[in-house]
Specification:
heterodimer, A: alpha/beta, six-stranded mixed β-sheet, 5 helices, about 15% strand, extended, B: mainly alpha, about 70% helix, elongated
Chain lengths: ~260, ~180
């Protein structure tokens, strides 16, 4: 790979009377990949490696087509989910409620750290005996994954973002407030909130096919003064629906309000 | 293979090891190329969040699609292609590009009236953003990231001549924009 200015005389690089090439080459480099993003990708690749189980990838040397972007069966979430704009991983801000982290997420996080530190081939170690098990809930069961809890996973390409704004919602104004949330969400700072919690709530929603979910925007809110979670779910048919649900979906998703369509 | 052994292999050997099931090999590929791929994604999308998502999807895709690497280009060129495609897919989702024709060697820079009306001197980045996608990508890869024309052609999956002409047209268009 060459660098700007390295190309041989006579190439297009040497035939730039405008000087634009030099101007572009002089722009500052964006710098290294942010650590948080690097960890996030390493985490995902660790899960890929764990899911692959160290077996050889088929199709070596062939024109094997990439896997379809949408699987009918939810698989381990690898996609664009965790916002990385918040650099710290500390506790939530004072007064903010920290939702419980699902056990498998905690395990995954631990493995991710191992993966980031030692390479990407880390396996999940069970808390019981240290034997490897797959983070593959909802997918094909493996022998060594027998004790993994059956937690459905988002599609790898599902776009999930989670906030923890603590905004006070009124049940009678869910449409309007959800619309305002969507409009403002791009400007909101992200909180370090486990995505799995939101997804757990989404898969428990009535009339929602998890395999058809394209985008999730979730926010920890209060609804009529009580802790709740806002879920804005966009499905592949471009339908956008909003629910307010109870914050803990580990057993089931308790719908408090909705679905409604957010007002623009 | 341990980390030290992985570091001694070249990219192609690492990819082969990964395909053969080595759990460390792709991690070394990621470590080697993450900064460069991040820069490509950031310069392609001009949006850190979108770039982050795209580069993550790209590395996961590369992990899964390693078997499709035929070895007729460098691994890094192959990675560039995956990253660029991931970025362009996302950009097109956000707003359908109006200059897709340029991907096939189409016309000159598109002059956008709403940009024209802004009476400020455009900086280089803003000028770059005004270019049609094909020209912009050619300049990002060749002028900013130092890929050869041949490498850029492989990444963009077009003929070398197309890359050359896009570079030339893109530079001329940028000059015009910057001189306004």
């Amino acid at each position: 790979m060459t660098r700007p200015g390295d190309q041989t005389p006579g190439s297009s690089a040497e035939q730039d009377p405008t000087g634009i090439r030099d101007l572009l080459a002089s722009l500052p480099d964006p710098g290294p990949m942010p650590d948080l993003l690097s960890r996030r990708i390493a985490d995902s690749l660790s899960r890929e490696a764990a899911q692959r189980g160290g077996s050889a990838t088929p199709g070596h040397g062939t024109d094997q087509a990439p896997p379809p972007p949408r699987a009918s069966t939810p698989v381990t979430h690898q996609g664009s989910v965790v916002p990385f704009a918040r650099p710290d991983r500390g506790d939530a801000a004072p007064g903010r409620r920290r939702r419980p982290v699902l056990p498998w997420l905690a395990t995954a996080a631990a493995v991710a750290s191992v993966g980031a530190a030692t390479g990407l081939g880390a396996y999940v170690l069970s808390e019981d005996d240290g034997a490897p098990m797959a983070i593959q809930p909802g997918g094909t069961e493996r022998e060594d994954a027998a004790e993994a809890p059956p937690v459905a996973q988002p599609n790898p390409f599902t776009d999930i973002k989670v906030w923890d704004t603590g905004t006070a919602y009124d049940s009678g104004a869910l449409q309007e407030q959800a619309g305002e949330f969507l409009s403002a969400s791009t400007d909101l700072n992200f909180e370090e909130v486990p995505v799995g919690d939101a997804w757990q709530c989404v898969v428990g929603l009535p009339d929602v096919d998890a395999a058809q979910v394209d985008q999730v925007r979730a926010d920890a809110i209060t609804l009529d003064g009580e802790p709740a979670q806002l879920l804005v779910v966009t499905t592949t048919d471009d339908r956008v629906r909003v629910w307010a649900v109870a914050p803990d979906c580990s057993g089931s998703t308790e719908v408090l309000e909705g679905p409604v369509t957010p007002l623009p | 293979m341990n980390l030290t052994e992985a570091q001694e292999l070249d990219d192609r050997q690492l990819l082969t090891a990964h395909i053969d099931g080595d759990p460390e090999a792709f991690g070394e590929i990621f470590r080697r190329h993450k900064d460069r791929m991040w820069a490509v994604a950031l310069r392609t999308t001009r949006d850190p969040e979108m770039a982050a998502d795209a580069v993550q999807d790209a590395f996961i895709s590369a992990f899964r699609r390693a078997g499709s690497f035929r070895g007729d280009s460098q691994v890094t060129t192959w990675l560039h292609r995956i990253v660029v495609n991931a970025c362009l897919d996302r950009l097109r989702k956000v707003k359908p590009t109006v200059d897709l024709d340029d991907l096939h060697g189409g016309g000159p820079v598109e002059h956008r009236d709403h940009h024209r009306s802004v009476e400020v001197r455009l900086d280089v980045r803003a000028a770059l953003e005004q270019l049609p996608e094909g020209q912009r990508m050619a300049l990002v890869l060749v002028d900013m990231h130092g890929l050869s024309v041949a490498e850029a052609a492989q990444v963009l999956e077009v003929a070398e001549g197309t890359v050359k002409s896009r570079c030339a047209r893109g530079r001329a268009a940028m000059l015009e924009l910057l001189q306004r």
